[in-house]
Write a structure and sequence with these properties.
By secondary structure, the chain is mainly beta. 5% of the residues lie in helices and 50% in strands. It has 2 helices and 15 strands. The protein has helices at residues 31-36, 122-125; strands at 2-8, 14-17, 22-28, 43-47, 54-58, 61-63, 69-74, 78-97, 104-111, 115-121, 130-136, 144-149, 151-153, 164-166, 169-178. The strands form 3 sheets. Strands 2, 5, 8, 10, 11, 13 and 14 form a 7-stranded mixed β-sheet that branches. The mean pLDDT is 88.
Amino acid sequence: YTVPVTISNAPYEFIPLCEQKSVKLETRAPRSYFAKYNANAFRVYANLDGMGEGDHQITPQVVMPQGFELVSVLPDTLTVKLDPLIERQIPIELTTSGSVAQESAVREIQKSMDVVTIVGPKSFVEQVAKIYGNVNFSGNTSTFETQIPMRAVDEKNEIVSKVRVVPSVITVLVDIESGVKKKIVPVIPELSTADGWELTKIM
């Protein structure tokens, strides 16, 4: 039977991290029992009662239906890391994409807040290099308000897992000025020269 691992009794101030999600049980029982019971009848626990920060080698605890005998558990130990739950405050960075419509220009971008809080296991929170969101102008011709999801990324600009951003969405107001036209106009200088001098060329 392949049975998922359940973490139990983890201290509330820690986040348990275990790469091994399941174990394989070898059991012995009358043949009729194997037809009667499937893997859902078994439970495997990693008990973290009384443990502190760091890596721990845990022997899985197996609960089986009556009449079964446990022969082996693979793997017979589980590595579980207890990572402190921490939080950090990080300034928000905004990127932009797209462009406003012709004869329009972005006058100002306003954020509903400048800083967000990230919460998660210490080893993951420490990987976060920045928090950013993207504002898409996409042909807008007038001022608009939009909800922007916040993303926590590392130095390689990859999303950091197991980290929660609070709030996960902020409001952004994009102030657009319409009716802006570009026009080329000739420049006609009005110049005078001192007595005895003649103007021949303007560079």
